[in-house]
Design a protein that fits this description.
The chain is an alpha+beta fold and 190 residues long. 32% of the residues lie in helices and 24% in strands. The strands form 2 sheets. It has a 4-stranded antiparallel sheet, covered by helices on one side. The chain has a two-stranded parallel ribbon with strand order 5-6.
Length: 190
């Protein structure tokens, strides 16, 4: 999500413009959690109020003489918002044409114990142990997984394994197609 926001800021800010990234820890009353505010601000071309209202919808792009020259699918911000929503966070956009744009993300995250990074063994136990492999899959029961695998055979095998464990699996061969299906995007009829 951060890469997408910075990439957009670079695309829509002239060479002599400015892009600022800031991260601030906010007060949080919950033990073991931290709340963070991330801001990406530029003084680029900005966007219209009308477009800002639908920027998080799939395949939306603003059309103007400046923007039409810049490549893009209109999916980056929809994907970014979806990721933030899945993390339980929020994203806001503040913009004015010809003055710039600022995105503000707020996330509450679980804090890691000092001096130790979380690995697969810490999250699921020793995954080389057969019993822990079962427990690792059990921890995903009732969850939704987007499986993107180009090999149909592997996709079928993995999908069957997930279905057996009551894990809802959306298996597709292409990440873009998978994202569109996952968010329920239906192509508008012409």
């Amino acid at each position: 999500m951060l890469l997408n926001l910075l990439s957009n800021a670079m695309k829509f800010t002239p060479q002599e413009g400015e892009i600022a990234l800031s991260l601030k820890q906010l007060p949080n009353e919950e033990d073991g959690k931290g709340t963070y505010e991330l801001r990406v601000k530029d003084n680029g071309i900005g966007m219209s109020e009308e477009f800002a209202e639908k920027i998080f919808e799939p395949f939306e792009r603003e059309y103007s003489s400046t923007v039409s020259k810049i490549q893009g699918t209109g999916l980056g911000m929809a994907i970014t918002k979806n990721i933030i929503d899945m993390m339980g966070g929020t994203i806001e956009v503040h913009t004015k044409q010809n003055e710039g744009t600022e995105f503000v993300i707020c996330l509450t995250l679980r804090l890691q114990k000092p001096g130790k990074a979380a690995g697969a063994d810490e999250l699921f136990g020793n995954v080389n142990d057969a019993e822990n492999k079962e427990n690792a899959l059990d921890s995903f029961k009732g969850k939704h997984i987007l499986l993107t695998e180009n090999n149909v055979f592997l996709r079928t095998i993995l999908g069957s394994t997930f279905d057996f464990k009551d894990i809802v699996c959306y298996g597709v061969g292409c990440l873009l197609l998978g994202f569109c299906e996952w968010i329920g995007y239906k192509r508008k009829e012409q």
